[in-house]
Amino acid sequence: xxxxxxxxxxxxxxxxxxxxEALVLFTFVSRLKYFIFRKIYKAESPPRCGDWFFGFRMLYxxxxxxxxxxxxxFTRENxxxxxVHTAFFKLVGKDVIxxxxxxxxxxxxxxxxxxxxxxxxxxxxxxxxxxxxxxxDGAEWKHAxxxxxxxxxxxxxxxxxxxxxxxxxxxxxxxxxxxSAFNIQPLFFNFxxxxxxxxxxxxxxxxxxxxxxxxxxxxxxxxxxxxxxxFPDAFNYSQNILNIRxxxxxxxxxxxxxxxxxxxxxxxxxxxxxxxxxxxxSEKEIETNSRGGNVFLYELLKETRDPVVMRDQCLxxxxxxxxxxxxLLSFTFFELARNPHVFKTLRETILESFKEGKGADISLIxxxxxxxxxxxxxxxxxxxxxxxxVPRNFRVSTKNTTLPHGGGPExxxxxxxxxxxxxxYAIYSTHRDEQYYGKDAHLFRPERWGESSxxxxxxxxxxxxxxxxxxxxxxxxxxxxxxxIVRLLQTFHNIESFDEVYPPKLQTHLTMSLxxxxxxxxx
Length: 523
Hints:
It contains 22 helices and 12 strands. It is of the alpha+beta class. β10 (506-508) and β11 form a beta hairpin. α9 runs antiparallel to α10 (185-201) and α10 (185-201) runs antiparallel to α16 (307-338). The chain starts with a helix and ends with a strand. The relative contact order is 0.16.
């Protein structure tokens, strides 16, 4: 009888009312479950922000500000205006916690590492990067990391002489500008793709060199010159789309078009050529091509002969090796041009250690001597503080758990994190927090890294992530960037800025770069 009445009542209701009722019921049950678990875990709830019902407005605003070049600053300003370090909101119907509290970040990346995983990242970006170290979790990730770790020993990171041919090409391109204003960022991206492909495959793209077709045919026998020529742009475009897919989370499949498909085909074709070449090499050829163990692909042969695994790991390393260093160099020269006193001090420090012009002794530049150049290291740290390569990242909780901060009036009580919650940690905001860097946190001031207060920031400075997944190539990127800076400041005496907008507009893809480039002149 009761069942019949219910069925009759349901059948007479419009579909949209049924949908609304189901939605209200689902929301009520979800909130009740959250409240009960929060009590069980003796934790608080972080402040709730935004349109919590679906969160489509938040997605729209994030994309809009990203297109304007304001996404990282938009996030930071929102949190600052709300006076919170941690907040809860909805994003396309998904529960999301946003935090820039160092203790929470430490928990996510280190002390509670097993409570979080990469979530849908693999689904979003494996179409291009495959199942490499950046997309895998658990046992697969541990295996990938163990394969790659031997490629980033101090001995191999310190092999700076291999950078010199590419630096010479970079200097030649800059000299062609005849001291006039130009955008140096594309040159840095070309430089790093050249040096990265040289390190990875033993053969460079030579994207900085003149006579591209001729160079390609001479050095890449068997590789279609058209694929090699198109590779840098195809790689760029693929990464742009991957970032959109990451923002869409479970709706990642919307981030697809024909150009993306063609770009991936070029990227995979380029990488597969070198993998196949390595797999077909004789022992003598492997010994020759590995250049004393300094070519990544031929060293990887010692760990695996699976062509797909080799391709995926190479693409993961290429993504990090190219983008991180190119962005670091671009932001460095952007700030040096705006701060001539810093440029002057840095150049004097470099010349004191490494000389200049014809008297420059390249043999003096090594991993050790670059590390000992304190002011150079301060400049790099300050650039990475203001412009971290990955301004924000995320994890997804694997179970019901807590984070140490964010609850209560003082935001110092633990908060409950329900299983499946996306937790975004905004390093960009942490690095600009006055609580850790003082009232001048927004200023470019390398000298702060010589002060005792800054040396205690610990988890408030994470340019290369932290915990078990800390970037394996950290020293590789820092050494390469430092080497390039030294060589350019040995060569050029003065720098000028032609950028009118400050703070600069930021382009956030898998990594962060200058949306409008770095317009400078070097004399």
